[in-house]
Design a protein that fits this description.
Elements: H1 3-7, E1 15-21, E2 24-29, H2 40-55, E3 61-66, E4 71-73, H3 78-83, H4 96-119, E5 124-128, E6 131-133, H5 135-142, E7 145-149, E8 153-155, H6 169-176, H7 180-189, E9 193-194, H8 195-201, E10 206-208, H9 211-226, H10 230-245, H11 248-259
Parallel strand pairs: 2-3, 3-5, 4-6, 5-7, 6-8, 7-10
Antiparallel strand pairs: 1-2, 8-9
Length: 260
């Protein structure tokens, strides 16, 4: 990513976008004082960032991490989100149907923003550390590769605040890990689990001793991917995602169609 291209990403308030090596972008969630918890403005920004990176010819691979050693993200900033009615604050002037419609639209917008990580044409490597709960799992499930530090503490936390994890975890996690029983265990109980358990079920592919070492591993992997043909890499990502969600026959048809 050239200097001029890096400057075009400088207007984002809650994220730092840098280029540690040629063709590699590094996106960092930047709200460490609040454990990188997400406000509505932040999820809109992350959607814009990944849509822009997807189209950027100077980017071939992306690292997603967070500023600070305490947390990747503590999930939604419940107080900030509740003030905007996403958690179901009742408007006394509206009937139940109108409230439900408003809530559905808000959740759909939120999903669309987070989905931009998965829709991004470029491979995304997510590096997690410390507190990684709730929305952290939704975000990580959208990434192509997941790496974490040994101190990472995960939780699909939504049931503890009276919600279902409907931003993507419940749809994607069963397709990522090796045990559906384990998925139901962690989603129904909201219990915490550590890096080694995440590695054992296949949620992450590497566990490093520290966040710094995890970032280093991600940077090496991103640079290696970026050295490959971008057409081949992006086509491979598209076909793998299609294969995950479709039958073998459908995937074979798509592959031949893409070859033209």
């Amino acid at each position: 990513m050239a200097q001029s291209e890096r400057e075009s990403y400088s207007d984002f308030r809650h994220f730092i976008i840098s280029s540690p090596s040629e063709y590699v972008a590094h996106v960092e969630i930047n709200r460490p004082s609040k454990l990188n918890a997400f406000t509505p403005d932040m999820w809109v920004e992350i959607g814009r960032i990944f849509a822009k990176l997807s189209r950027d010819p100077g980017v071939r691979a992306i690292i997603l991490s967070a500023v600070g050693d305490r947390a990747f993200t503590a999930g939604l900033d419940v107080q900030a989100v509740d003030q905007q009615g996403l958690l179901g604050n009742r408007d006394q002037q509206s009937d139940a149907a109108r409230q439900a419609t408003k809530l559905r639209r808000q959740i759909s917008e939120f999903q669309d923003c987070i989905n931009q990580i998965e829709k991004c044409e470029k491979p995304v490597i997510c590096v997690m550390n410390g507190v990684s709960i709730g929305l952290a799992i939704d975000i990580a499930c959208c990434a192509d590769v997941r790496i974490c530090s040994r101190d990472t503490r995960f939780s699909v936390k939504e049931v503890d605040i009276g919600m279902a994890a409907d931003i993507g975890t419940l749809a994607r996690l069963p397709k990522i890990v090796s045990s559906f029983s384990w998925v139901k265990d962690v989603c129904l109980t909201a219990r915490g689990f550590g890096a080694e358990e995440a590695l054992a079920v296949g949620f992450v592919s590497q566990v490093l001793e520290t966040k710094a070492k995890a970032i280093e591993a991600a940077s090496m992997l991103a640079s290696f991917i970026a050295s490959k043909s971008p057409v081949a890499v992006q086509g491979t990502k598209e076909l793998l995602n299609h294969a995950r969600d479709n039958t073998v026959a459908d995937s074979e048809y798509t592959k031949h169609t893409l070859k033209g």
